[in-house]
Each structure stands twice: as structure tokens, then as C-alpha cells.
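Hi support team,

I've been running sequence recovery on a batch of backbones for a student project. Most finish fine, but this one hangs at about 90% for roughly twenty minutes before it completes. I'm not sure whether the input is malformed or the queue is just slow. I've pasted the C-alpha cells below so you can try to reproduce it. Let me know if you need the job ID as well.

Thanks,
M.K.
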């Protein structure tokens, strides 16, 4: 083989090989409604506030998870509405790329249902989260009908979670309950206390100061 032929052959091989970029952007569509957006932000805000002193988790919403075994962005990806990965670095990411994250998949996934996505969330996605992601805790919630369900992975299959007396479902991975409060999905502690947003916590503190005849605006 001549030098020219050898170079051409190498060039052809290089063109066939796909080297995934090191920084993949999320590829998720726009959210269904404003209510979906508010629900995702609420979950994210509450968990990050509760775990504000922790640096060993990653939480995000409507973000692509790339999980191709051949490390190709175009091959396999899903975008849960909300998910949490434990045992990882807490930092901003453009997407979650499994092969760049020590093979880690989400520990918890929450899907926000809509008429357009409900069937996929309850069937196809549930199967993928069970069989491929092996995500221990999976929940779905419909902000319109208030349908709420949760599952825990047991012996390789999702088993329905039983609600407590308040209708809340326990997440072993988060060590928290999830339940409906004023029409939205919220986190609750093991003692049943609502996990606050930073704004709710500030207002609660302000109310206590007023009870002590202290004007919070003067502090």
C-alpha cells in the first residue's frame, strides 16, 4: 500500500469513529405548562435549601441524562422532570452524562404528568428507570388531577409504595416523605414537618420576631 493510500485509509477510519464531546448540553423540550415549571422549581428549591450544607448530591429538573453504552449523545437519553443523584459532586452541569459520572444513575426520579406525557411516564419511562437506570425510588404526580404514586425498586422490580396516614410516600433514598400540600408536591421530614423554601423559612422567622415585638425590617 502506498503512503497516499495509507493516509486515505486512516482518514476514512477516523471519519467513522464518533468521539463524544466532553461537555454535552441537555436536549430536552420546553415544559408543558407554567405549573410544571413551578412544580419542578419548588422541588429543587426545597431540597437544595434543606441540604444546603451538603456537597455530595446533584439535583436537577428537565435535564437530559445520556446513557449510551457506546458513549454517543444521539443514541440513548431521557430527561426526567426532576431527579437526584447521591454520592456525587454538587456543581452546575449542562446535562448528566452517565459515562462521565462514574456510571451513576439517579437515585430518585419524579415525573410531572400531563395528558401528553402520562402514558409514557407510566409505562415506557417506568420500564427504563426500572430495568436500565435501576433508580431505587420513582414517583409521578399530576398537578391538575393530583394523581400521585410512588415505587421502590425491590428485587429488580418496582413495587408500589403504601401511603402513610397523611397520604405521604416515603423515599428511602432521600430519607424524606413526598406528599401533596396546597395542590403541589412537597417534601416532608420523617416527623411529618413540611420542608420549607428559603422564602417560607424567612417569613416564619419574621413572624417569630414580630411575636417578640421586634420589627424584622430593622434587623
Amino acid at each position: 500500500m502506498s503512503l497516499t493510500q495509507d493516509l486515505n485509509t486512516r482518514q476514512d477510519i477516523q471519519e467513522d469513529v464518533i468521539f463524544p464531546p466532553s461537555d454535552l448540553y441537555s436536549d430536552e423540550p420546553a415544559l408543558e405548562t407554567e405549573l410544571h415549571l413551578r412544580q419542578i422549581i419548588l422541588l429543587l428549591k426545597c431540597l437544595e435549601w434543606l441540604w444546603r450544607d451538603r456537597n455530595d448530591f446533584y439535583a436537577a429538573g428537565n435535564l437530559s441524562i445520556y446513557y449510551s453504552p457506546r458513549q454517543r449523545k444521539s443514541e440513548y437519553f431521557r430527561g426526567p422532570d426532576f431527579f437526584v443523584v447521591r454520592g456525587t459532586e454538587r456543581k452546575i452541569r449542562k446535562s448528566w452524562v452517565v459515562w462521565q459520572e462514574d456510571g451513576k444513575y439517579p437515585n430518585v426520579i419524579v415525573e410531572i404528568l400531563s395528558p401528553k406525557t402520562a402514558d409514557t411516564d407510566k409505562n415506557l419511562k417506568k420500564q427504563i428507570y426500572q430495568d436500565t437506570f435501576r433508580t431505587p425510588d420513582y414517583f409521578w404526580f399530576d398537578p391538575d388531577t393530583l394523581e400521585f404514586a410512588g415505587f421502590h425498586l425491590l428485587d429488580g422490580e418496582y413495587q408500589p409504595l403504601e401511603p402513610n396516614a397523611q397520604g405521604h410516600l416515603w423515599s428511602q433514598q432521600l430519607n424524606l416523605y413526598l406528599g401533596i400540600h396546597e395542590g403541589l408536591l412537597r417534601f416532608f421530614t420523617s416527623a411529618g414537618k413540611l420542608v420549607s423554601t428559603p422564602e417560607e423559612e424567612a417569613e416564619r422567622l419574621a413572624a417569630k420576631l414580630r411575636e417578640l415585638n421586634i420589627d424584622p425590617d430593622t434587623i
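--
Follow-up from support: It reproduced on our side and the slowdown came from queue contention, not your input. Residues 21-218 form a domain with the tt1808, chain A fold (CATH 3.90.1570.20). No action needed from you.
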